[in-house]
Specification:
Layout: E1 9-13, H1 20-31, E2 34-37, H2 38-52, H3 59-67, E3 71-74, E4 77-80, E5 83-84, H4 92-101, H5 105-116, E6 124-128, H6 131-135, E7 141-146, H7 149-162, H8 169-185, E8 198-201, H9 207-222
Parallel strand pairs: 1-6, 1-7, 2-6, 7-8
Antiparallel strand pairs: 3-4, 4-5
Helix pairs in contact: 1-9, 2-4, 3-5, 7-8
Length: about 220
């Protein structure tokens, strides 16, 4: 059995709607590796908090919810207590609450071990906001994916409409700016690029082009 520290990780961090999830999944598929959508764990916690009527301002109560999440991932779908919540966790109210509770140190600690358990052979592509700085600081390749906020808001608006949700571009833009500020300024694991991260600006890149850039960085590292 390969020791976890010897299993390679590509950490992909960046702000909301920067395309991290899609890029991580495509890179993982290309390499035949596992993928971790760390944001889904925070969204699942937020959804459980909303459904259970837990006070979002009660950090210890929210951390308790995070610690006993009954979650599973199958073929890109997400299940909470056996129920498919793939679409539900993508609602904006869930995303906004996820950003708020992600600032809680107790919540981050409750989910840390669960995230690290995804590190299995032959490798892992992990996306989030602190994959390269906190969860997998020894990752041989760290990508910090950025895109201007207007481009990200348009992407998110398009995604929501394609999935049948109503979406307002100006509202999304304002929410995104607030979420960016909250993520960057929080005391616990703020959104910052690791010192050794490769900065990739996807504002004017297609998904295929962005995936190619990431795979190129990996190829140059292992060749």
């Amino acid at each position: 059995m390969t020791a976890p520290a010897r299993i390679p990780v590509i950490a992909i961090d960046g702000p909301t709607a920067s395309g991290k999830g899609t890029i991580a999944m495509r890179v993982a598929q290309a390499l035949g590796w596992s993928v971790l959508d760390s944001g889904a764990l925070y969204r699942l916690t937020a959804l459980a908090v909303l459904e259970q009527g837990v006070d979002p301002a009660d950090e210890s109560a929210v951390a308790e919810v995070a610690g006993r999440l009954d979650v599973s991932f199958h073929n890109g779908d997400v299940f909470l207590r056996g129920r498919d919540v793939t679409q539900a966790i993508r609602e904006e109210r869930v995303g906004n609450l996820a950003s708020r509770i992600a600032a809680y140190g107790a919540v981050r600690e409750a989910l840390l071990g669960r995230q690290r358990a995804f590190r299995v052979a032959p490798g892992l592509v992990a996306d989030g906001r602190d994959m390269g700085t906190v969860v997998f600081p020894d990752a041989p390749l760290k990508i910090f994916l950025v895109a201007d906020v207007e481009a990200r808001a348009k992407r998110r608006c398009k995604q929501l409409k394609e999935k049948g949700f109503s979406a307002n571009l100006s509202g999304l833009l304002e929410d995104m700016r607030l979420r960016d500020e909250r993520d960057r300024s929080r005391a616990n694991a703020p959104l910052v690029a690791a010192p050794d991260a490769k900065i990739v600006d996807s504002s004017n890149l297609s998904i295929d082009e962005t995936v190619a850039v990431v795979l190129g960085h990996w190829s140059s590292l292992v060749s």
